[in-house]
Amino acid sequence: MDLEDARHQSLEQLHERRKQVAGLHVKGHGVMKIVELTGLSDLAVRRAMDLVEGTGASALKPAPRGCQKGQGRSLSAEQEESVRRTICDKRPERLTMEFALWTRGAVMQLSEQQYGVKLSVRAVGDYLDR
Phi, psi at residue 40, to the nearest 5°? Predict the structure, then answer.
C-alpha cells in the first residue's frame, strides 16, 4: 500500500485526516491498523494521536505552513516605502553617490547610508521587484 505524504495535503484535508485518526484511536484501533485504514504514515498517525492525548481535539487543526508575508525582511515597511520614494524622486548623483542610475549596488548603498542595513544583491533585487 502506498502511503500518502501529509506534507502535500491542504490544511483542510490534513485536519480531516487527523480527525479520522483521532476517531479510530478512540475506538481502540492500534497504530498499524489506523495506518492501514487511512493511508497515512505511522509517524503522521502517532503525531495526531499525541496531539489528541496531550491537548485534546482542538489541537488537531494544523497551523499555517511557511513564513508569513513580510517576515524576515531587513527593512520595515516604512523604510521600504521611503527607499522607493527616494528612487522615484531623486537620482543617485543628487545624493552624492557614485552611481549615475539606480542599480542594485546603488540601492544597497542607499539602504546602508539611510538605515545602516547592509542588504545582499539578491535582497535588493527582491525589494526592487516589489
Answer: -85, 165
